[in-house]
Design brief:
With 259 residues, this protein is α+β, with helices and mostly antiparallel strands. The protein is built from seven helices and ten strands. The protein has a single domain, classed as Glutamine Phosphoribosylpyrophosphate, subunit 1, domain 1. The longest helix has 22 residues.
Length: 259
């Protein structure tokens, strides 16, 4: 990316009215690992693909347990993400100690937005080069929040962040309305399957999702935030890959129409 005299200080606007360091932080997120999150009536799901720097390296963790009712996925600079995850865990612990109740998801995200925005206001600091996709469940029901490097935060029915996330968002836009129509007994399994299917659409062209590099976390009604086991990952992947293999290709549909 082009460098200029305006990108060395976060408090200096360029002649076009842009804060270039924030744009660099957003670009770091866009090149990070894809994270997918969605929610239904009673559950929230977040999933991601664990990446390794080389064949000799272990997979980097991208999903973290924040509290019993909250999980988080990060995309961007992993070091910055760990700093924010530790801060979120401390805030949840302090809230339990002071108020003797779990912290609401919206309140925590508001504090994280303030923390991220402060780094865009003071000389000598830089924005956090990471975005958070937080899945939680509280008295208001299930939630999916995104927190951006600029300090903005948004709530979604479903969302995806990171590299090649547009294909996942396209899938979610087509199917998110059905997420609230699942029977309660099947809702968790259906949401997990949709999340993995959206993630699979971002990786099937160059890499393969396996039970080792797939990570899924679920939280919801009567269900503490937890990560699925490798066996559960394989079960979901088998369903997704079988349905992808049985689906007709676009070219086959076109041939049938021409005939």
């Amino acid at each position: 990316m082009y460098r200029s005299q305006y990108d060395t200080d976060i408090t200096t606007f360029s002649t076009a009215g842009r804060l270039l360091q924030i744009e660099y932080a957003v670009e770091a997120v866009n090149q990070g690992t894809c994270v997918v999150g969605l929610r239904g009536n009673n559950f929230s799901v977040v999933c991601s693909q664990k990446r390794a720097q080389s064949k000799l390296a272990y997979h980097q963790q991208k999903l973290f347990n924040i509290d019993d009712h909250m999980a988080c996925g990060i995309s961007g600079l992993t070091a910055d993400g760990r700093v924010l995850v530790d801060h979120m865990r401390n805030e949840c612990l302090n809230n339990k100690y002071v108020y003797d109740c779990p912290m609401t998801v919206g309140r925590l995200i508001t504090q994280m937005g303030t923390k991220a925005q402060k780094n865009t206001m003071h000389y000598g600091k830089r924005p956090f080069g990471v975005a958070l996709l937080v899945a939680g469940y509280d008295k208001g029901g299930p939630h999916i929040f995104e927190s951006c490097p600029s300090g903005n935060y948004f709530e979604f029915h479903a969302n995806a962040i990171g590299a090649r996330s547009q294909s996942a968002r396209t899938y979610l836009e087509k199917n998110y309305e059905s997420f609230k129509e699942f029977p309660e007994a099947e809702e968790k399994d259906k949401l997990i399957e949709h999340a993995v299917r959206a993630l699979y659409s971002t990786t099937k062209d160059d890499t393969d999702l396996t039970m080792e590099n797939l990570t899924v976390m679920v939280v919801g009604k009567g269900c503490k935030a937890h990560e699925l086991t490798m066996i559960e990952n394989q079960t979901v992947l088998d369903k997704v890959k079988d349905s992808e293999a049985s689906a007709p290709a676009d070219g086959d549909d076109a041939m049938e129409v021409d005939q």
